[in-house]
C-alpha cells in the first residue's frame, strides 16, 4: 500500500471505538469510564502496568466479557458477545502460545482458518500465505513441541492472522524470544500494517512500542492517563534530557562535590542532580544548550571530566513518570 492510500485509510471511520467503558468486579472498579479510538490503518499501542485494566479492556472489546456501562463499536457496528459478524473480522494473537500439540504446524493453521473460512480452495490459499508470511515453510509437518526458539511464537501469529482479519490484537507477542525472532515478529507486524491491517499492540518492551506504534495510549487504574505519538508523550514530562559526566575527582573532595551539585542545580533547566559511583547525573528540561551549560559549570570549577553522555527521554521514562515506579502484582 502506498503512502497516499495509507493516509486515506487512516482518516476513515475508527476500526475500534470505546466510549465511557465501565467494568466492575464486585467492589473493584477495573475500567473507569475508559475511552479508546483506534483509527483504521494504524498501529495502536496500549500500555499500562500490571493490573491497569489492559486485559479487561481487550476482553470487553472482543466480546469475551460483559461490562457495566459504556459502548464499544467495531467498524461502526455495536460490538457484543453475539456480534459474530464483527468478531470474525477480528484477529487475536495471545501472549501465551495457544495451539494444539497433537496437530502439525499446517494442521493448526488450517484448523484456525476453518473457524472463519468455509471455502476449501480459499482456505488452502490463505494457509499457504500465512505459512510463508511467518517463514514456517520448512516446518509444515512439525508438531509444536518440536519447534524451538521463536518458532512457536511465529506459529501463534500465523494462527491468529490466517483469515486476514482487520484489526488484529497482539498481546505481548515477543515475550521470552531471542533478538532475531523479536525482530522478525516486529517486521512482520509492520508488513501486516503496510498491507492495510489495523493493529492493537500491547507490550512491556517500551522500545518495541516506540519503534512500531503510530499512537500510544497509557492507562492506569482503568482510565486513560495519556495518549499521543511517542514524541508527544515525551513532551508531557519535565525531564527532557539526562546528562551523565564521569568525575571521579569529586569522590575525594566532598566540598567541591557539594558546590558542583549546588551550582548545577541552580541552572534554570535542571530538575535534579545526583552524584554516585564517580558519576554526575543531571536531569534537565528539553533544551538546546543543556550540555553546554553543564560543562561550563564544571569547567569553571576546574573539575576533571571523563566520559560525557547526553540521552533524550525514552518512552520508558515517560511510562515511569506517569505510572510511578512502585512494583505491581
Automatic annotation (TrEMBL):
The keyword Translocase does not apply. The keyword Transport applies. PROSITE patterns: ABC_TRANSPORTER_2 (PS50893). Residues 16-246 form the ABC transporter domain. Gene3D superfamilies: P-loop containing nucleotide triphosphate hydrolases. One of its GO terms (molecular function) is ATP binding. Signal peptide: none annotated. SUPFAM superfamilies: P-loop containing nucleoside triphosphate hydrolases. Keywords: ATP-binding, Nucleotide-binding, Transport. This is Probable ATP binding protein of ABC transporter.
Amino acid at each position: 500500500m502506498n503512502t497516499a492510500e495509507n493516509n486515506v485509510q487512516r482518516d476513515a471511520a475508527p476500526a475500534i471505538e470505546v466510549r465511557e467503558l465501565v467494568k466492575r468486579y464486585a467492589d473493584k472498579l477495573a475500567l473507569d469510564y475508559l475511552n479508546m479510538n483506534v483509527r483504521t490503518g494504524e498501529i495502536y499501542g496500549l500500555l499500562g502496568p500490571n493490573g491497569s485494566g489492559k486485559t479487561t479492556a481487550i476482553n470487553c472489546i472482543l466480546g469475551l466479557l460483559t461490562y457495566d456501562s459504556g459502548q464499544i463499536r467495531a467498524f461502526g457496528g455495536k460490538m457484543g458477545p453475539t456480534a459474530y459478524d464483527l468478531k470474525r473480522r477480528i484477529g487475536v494473537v495471545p501472549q501465551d502460545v495457544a495451539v494444539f500439540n497433537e496437530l502439525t504446524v499446517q494442521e493448526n493453521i488450517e484448523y484456525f482458518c476453518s473457524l472463519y473460512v468455509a471455502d476449501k480452495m480459499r482456505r488452502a490459499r490463505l494457509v499457504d500465505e500465512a505459512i510463508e508470511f511467518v517463514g514456517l515453510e520448512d516446518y509444515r509437518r512439525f508438531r509444536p513441541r518440536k519447534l524451538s526458539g521463536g518458532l512457536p511464537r511465529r506459529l501463534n501469529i500465523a494462527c491468529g492472522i490466517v483469515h486476514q482479519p482487520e484489526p488484529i490484537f497482539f498481546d505481548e507477542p515477543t515475550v521470552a524470544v531471542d533478538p532475531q525472532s523479536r525482530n522478525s515478529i516486529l517486521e512482520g507486524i509492520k508488513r501486516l500494517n503496510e498491507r492495510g491491517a489495523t493493529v492493537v499492540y500491547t507490550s512491556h518492551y517500551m522500545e518495541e512500542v516506540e519503534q512500531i506504534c503510530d499512537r500510544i495510549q497509557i492507562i492506569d487504574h482503568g482510565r486513560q492517563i495519556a495518549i499521543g505519538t511517542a514524541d508527544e508523550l515525551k513532551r508531557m514530562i519535565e525531564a527532557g534530557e539526562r546528562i551523565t559526566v564521569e568525575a571521579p575527582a569529586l569522590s575525594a573532595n566532598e566540598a567541591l562535590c557539594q558546590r558542583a551539585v549546588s551550582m548545577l542545580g541552580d541552572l534554570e533547566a535542571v530538575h535534579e542532580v545526583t552524584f554516585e559511583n564517580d558519576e554526575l547525573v543531571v536531569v534537565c528540561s528539553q533544551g538546546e544548550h543543556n550540555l553546554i551549560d553543564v560543562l561550563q559549570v564544571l569547567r569553571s570549577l576546574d573539575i576533571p571530566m571523563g566520559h560525557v553522555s547526553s540521552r533524550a527521554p525514552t518512552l520508558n521514562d515517560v511510562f515511569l513518570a506517569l505510572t510511578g515506579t512502585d512494583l505491581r502484582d
